Structure formats: structure tokens, C-alpha cells
């Protein structure tokens, strides 16, 4: 059975990788689908996000996982065209539930043959999101363990310039 795990992955976190690993044990093939969200300005472009997931998946030795990107159209149409039967979602907290519940019902109405399956977060990643990682990196905090080791440097570098700018502003103001 083919499962599709969609998200913005800006960037992939250890919580995402945990969901990918667990799905890859449940399904014969997992497609991690990096979606373009026109209302968000990502820190990493589509190509970088795909590449970071590919490196993480490769380092984790998962060979039934592939990474694709998706910019236009309905998720359920993509899933159907890829011969997928399942959409995988991660759930962290009750706050994720309402939106995910609505999307799952909507997607089932659009394509009744496609099921949405929810995997509960690992307790150690329940607080983790891409936005939290970016926030910590931007403020110069330690992100080791929060993102896969293979992308650690790239995330640090992306925000290193911003810290310098923030630092310069502080110096100027004082
Ligand atoms: P984020 O909310 O981190 O910006 P995405 O939109 O990329 O993430 O999330 C893609 C999917 O991964 C969603 O189903 C989301 O609920 C799930 N997810 C994100 N972070 C975690 C985590 N720490 N544990 C479990 N699932 C997660």
C-alpha cells in the first residue's frame, strides 16, 4: 500500500522524520510530499526542502521512501494519480486535531477511497514544529536533536546571517 505524507517541511524536523520512519514500517511505499503554501513565505525553497528530506531519509536508511513536491491542485488528486490509498498525518496536540479532522472529512468527501491515517507524535517531539526550530535557530539557540543531524549545518548557516544582523542592530541601538 502506498501512503502519502504531506507537509511544508520548512525544514524537516526530528518529529517529521519519526513519522516518516514509522510510516515506512507500515506501508510498502511512502511518498513524502512537500507542498507549496502560497500564503507562507518559506525559509527554505522547495528544492532545498526536498533535498534536506532526501538526505535525512537516506541517512536513516529508509529505502521505501521517496520525496516529491507539489504546487498546484488538490492533495487527493495527487494521491490518486500516485496510486496512493492513504494520507498520513502526524498529531501533536489537541490543537492540531480540529484542523486535521476538518481536512480528513473534506478529503474523504472529495475521494471516498482515500483514507487519512493519524500517527501520534513521539512524546519527546510533541512540542516540536518547524516554526519552533526556525525561532530557536534565529535566536542562536541549540537545535541539535531537533532536526536530523544531516541537515543541522544547513539550518544553522541559513540563520547565521540573521543572527549577525540582529546582533548588529542591538549594537547600533546601545
Ligand atoms: P509544522 O507544523 O512543523 O510546520 P508541517 O506542515 O510540515 O509542519 O507538518 C506536516 C505534518 O507533520 C503534519 O501532519 C503535522 O501534524 C506533522 N508534524 C509536524 N511536527 C510533528 C511532530 N513533532 N510530531 C508529529 N507530527 C508532526
Describe the protein.
This protein is α/β, with parallel strands linked by helices and about 170 residues long. It has a single domain, classed as Rossmann fold, CATH 3.40.50.620. It is about 45% helix and about 20% strand. α2 links the parallel β2 and β3. Adenosine-5'-diphosphate binds near residues 7, 9, 13 and 92. Adenosine-5'-diphosphate binds near residues 15, 19 and 128.
Number of helices: 6
What is the H/E string? EHEHEHEHEHH
**How would you write the strand order of the largest sheet?**
3-2-1-4-5
The CATH class is Alpha Beta
- What percent strand? 15-25%
Within the CATH hierarchy, at the fold level, what is the topology? Rossmann fold
Determine the structural class based on helices, strands and strand pairing.
Answer: alpha/beta
Uncertain runs: none
Shape designation: globular
| Gyration radius, in Å | 17 Å
Task: Give the tally of structural domains.
Answer: 1
Q: How many strands?
A: 5
Largest sheet report: 5 strands, parallel
Termini separation: 60 Å
Question: What is the gist of this entry?
Answer:
This protein is of the alpha/beta class and 174 residues long.
Amino acid at each position: 500500500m502506498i501512503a502519502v505524507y504531506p507537509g511544508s517541511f520548512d525544514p524537516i524536523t526530528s518529529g517529521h522524520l519519526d513519522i516518516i520512519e514509522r510510516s515506512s514500517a507500515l506501508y510498502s511505499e511512502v511518498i513524502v510530499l512537500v507542498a507549496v503554501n502560497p500564503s507562507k513565505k518559506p525559509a527554505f525553497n522547495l528544492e532545498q526542502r526536498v533535498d534536506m528530506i532526501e538526505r535525512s531519509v537516506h541517512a536513516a536508511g529508509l529505502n521505501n521512501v521517496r520525496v516529491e513536491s507539489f504546487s498546484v491542485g488538490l492533495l487527493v488528486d495527487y494521491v490518486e494519480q500516485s496510486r496512493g490509498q492513504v494520507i498520513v498525518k502526524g498529531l501533536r496536540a489537541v490543537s492540531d486535531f480540529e484542523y486535521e479532522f476538518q481536512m480528513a472529512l473534506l478529503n474523504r468527501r472529495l475521494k471516498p477511497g482515500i483514507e487519512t491515517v493519524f500517527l501520534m507524535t513521539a512524546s519527546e517531539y510533541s512540542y516540536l514544529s518547524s516554526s519552533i526550530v526556525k525561532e530557536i535557530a534565529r535566536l542562536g539557540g541549540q537545535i541539535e536533536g531537533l532536526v536530523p543531524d544531516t541537515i543541522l549545518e544547513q539550518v544553522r548557516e541559513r540563520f547565521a546571517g540573521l543572527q549577525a544582523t540582529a546582533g548588529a542592530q542591538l549594537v547600533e541601538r546601545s
